[in-house]
Amino acid sequence: MEKIRNLSLKKTMVLYTILSLIVTFFLSVSIIEIAGQIQEEVWWKYVDQDEYYQAMNDRNENFEVVVPRPNQSKMSRMDWHISETCDFLRTYGVLLFSFAGCGIAVSLFYKNKLKRPIQELKMASQMIAEEDLDFHMAYENEDEMGMLCREFERMRGQLEENNRRLWQMIEDERVLRAAIAHDIRSPLAIMRGYQEMLLEFVPEDMLDQEKMMEMLRGGMLQIERMNHFIDSMRKMTKLEERELNCSVVDIRQLINQIEALAEVVVEKSEKNFTVTTVRECLQ
Fold first, then answer.
1. How many domains does the chain contain in total?
2. In this predicted model, what pLDDT tens digit does every residue of 235-253 receive, in sequence order?
3. Which of 129, 145, 173 is the last residue of a domain?
4. Range of 88's domain?
5. Which DSSP string do the residues of 131-190 spell out, in sequence order?
6. What is the pTM of this model?
7. pLDDT tens, residue by residue, 138-149
């Protein structure tokens, strides 16, 4: 049964056709034989039985005695219709049953080999059109329709993977935009703090030259930081092409820079700021 189920469409159609012709042939022979018997029984009602038996007794090997067809005028209306129906079946029975057998073969072929995969492909097409890829093709026969369903399943899987990658790219882009906004906002906030301090304390001569130079150097550092960031963004074309460039830094120097920059923000925001380090970083 498994081999028949996995036959190709061509071989399955040929098999169904041959079986239908064999069945319809024997069925036609049986129907023709039965129709002949019924017809003779109808005719027998209108035969002179004594004359028939006499003919049977007088016959020889060169002749055959048959029940003759009665004249229509002698037959009842029902018997005449039965006789004509039997004539029709005996004449066209083979042709009619052959057509019926072929029709049944085609119907079984469609039901067993085409109906289910076509329904699954139609369902899959509708779900893909609705952008719903959460389904699987369940038709797994080894025929041509099974191959088509497996290819459709492979395409569905590829679309699902592409959608997953697209959503991942969108999420990466969101994270990147947030990082860009943070990397731009931080140096701008520090430079704004420096400028506000200079505008507030320089006119009143409350800053010495060393503090002013420190603030100016800090501002130049933030400008260089932004230039470096903008240059990196200009060279970037795709998320996948980003490379992480690592370098060794002095942790104490980094802490001092963070504390110096944070002092500007802390003074304006009136918030506390503390830098903590893990002991391994200082070793």
1. 2
2. 665 444 556 667 777 777 7
3. 129
4. 2-129
5. T----------SSHHHHHHHHHHHHHHHHHHHHHHHHHHHHHHHHHHHHHHHHHHHHHHH
6. 0.53
7. 777 778 888 888
